[in-house]
Amino acid sequence: MCLALPTRIVELLDGDQCRVELGGVRKEISLALIDGAAVGDYVIVHVGYALTKLDPEEAAQTLALFAEAGLDPATSCAQGDRATPR
Amino acid sequence: MKYIDEFRDQALAAGLARAIAHEAGTGRDYAFMEFCGGHTHTLSRYGIADLLPPTLRMIHGPGCPVCVLPIGRVDMAIRLALSRPEVILCTYGDCLRVPASDGLSLLKAKAHGADVRMVYSTADALALARREPGREVVFFAIGFETTTPPTALVLREAARQGLANFSVICNHVLTPAAIAAILEPPGGNAPQAVQIDGFVGPAHVSTVIGSRPYEAFASTHRKPVVIAGFEPLDVMQAILMLLRQVNTGRAVVENEFTRAVTRDGNLKAQALVAEVFEPRPGFEWRGLGTLPDSALRIRVAFTAWDAEAKFDLGYTPVPDNKACECGAILRGVKSPIDCKLFGTVCTPETPMGSCMVSSEGACAAHYTYGRFRDLPLRASDTATPANQDTA
Ligand code: SF4
């Protein structure tokens, strides 16, 4: 029951609510648990509440890491340590 | 879809599989536990087991909230709903089918006349209480740190509105306590779990609590933890990062899911949870026994909205069905196929144990996506990336 997908905020509504869109489906969810969300942000929604915003830069860096790992498994190991807690 | 499809890319998966095989080629065996049911689901659904070298084994963990809910807690809700006609018992969909005592579940109790309803969010339960002032609306709350803040929000809201006909049965549990219990069974007499070299740490739980709570765990137990997202490439990258830690003799917390998880997590949600809940001295988990400080209860200031106090609900522990291996599966000692009932008597349509209920349960995940792998005659590998070179 913890599965949840990143959805995009398409409209801010009254009372900490917003409308999100995922693959053409729109839904109303609550933003009461996070601060400073704006239209266009991607949020992870769980049981009707946004839990966190997605960081687009970090997403891009993670994708780059995947690509690099596969290029040359023997030499790409050093970079793996980058993803440490901030 | 953005932030989804890129993390399921087949060519990148093949590359990661090669890197994993290379890193694991040391001649030794590795065993990693994925704590979350969400990761169990991903591993099964995308056939990741087929992409891993035979020396690397993934072990299911207890991180499925429906799976770890003991029978006694479901019985409590059923008793309340059956004995008090004024009660409307609301809960999330997965809870409705968890097998309880006397062949009942919340869904079957409904057939016996109890007013049991499924809600999608805590806000729905609160709205129901406002609409039905003549009834008692009780929300049966389950879940790890991901699901707790929404429950805290409605409890605070009910208190603010003075909504006297709303209350919550709190079954919220804590992740770090369960991870520790896997490695050090309580009282030293519970069955010891299998050897584990590291943990794939929770995704969405960690968006709330951050990566910090695992740090002490990693250093005390000398086990690496890599927090990972729920997409297939996230899980594969986390496995690669765990291998590198083990191979270099490190045991720290690393974060693969930096796009959603920070070290501190969601402070707003944490403050809210601390305002409404406090640790329970002891809570029984299915499979793990009673663990100290492993769950939350509602603070005294909110007692008027605590269904356990309001309806004087007592807890009676109930042993699991003898033939069901859920307990051993949740400790990581057994797999779904070790259970005699798997796929015969017990299926997702007719679950005998909790692990077959939610799609994130080990048995349900294996039944839905993996059971044909057990057959001697393998279907061709056409649709999965499994035919990529993994050696
Ligand atoms: S197959 Fe069913 S009965 Fe057996 S362990 Fe899994 S859930 Fe329990």
From TrEMBL, chain A:
GO terms for biological process: protein maturation. GO terms for molecular function: carbon dioxide binding; iron ion binding. It holds the Pfam family HupF_HypC. InterPro entries: Hydgase_assmbl_chp_CS, Hydrogenase_HupF/HypC. PROSITE patterns: HUPF_HYPC (PS01097). NCBIfam families: hypC_hupF. Belongs to the HupF/HypC family. This is Hydrogenase assembly protein HupF.
Automatic annotation (TrEMBL), chain B:
Keywords: Iron, Metal-binding. It holds the Pfam family HypD. One of its GO terms (molecular function) is 4 iron, 4 sulfur cluster binding. GO terms for biological process: protein maturation. Signal peptide: none annotated. Belongs to the HypD family. This is Hydrogenase maturation factor. It comes from Thauera humireducens. The lineage of its organism: Bacteria, Pseudomonadati, Pseudomonadota, Betaproteobacteria, Rhodocyclales.
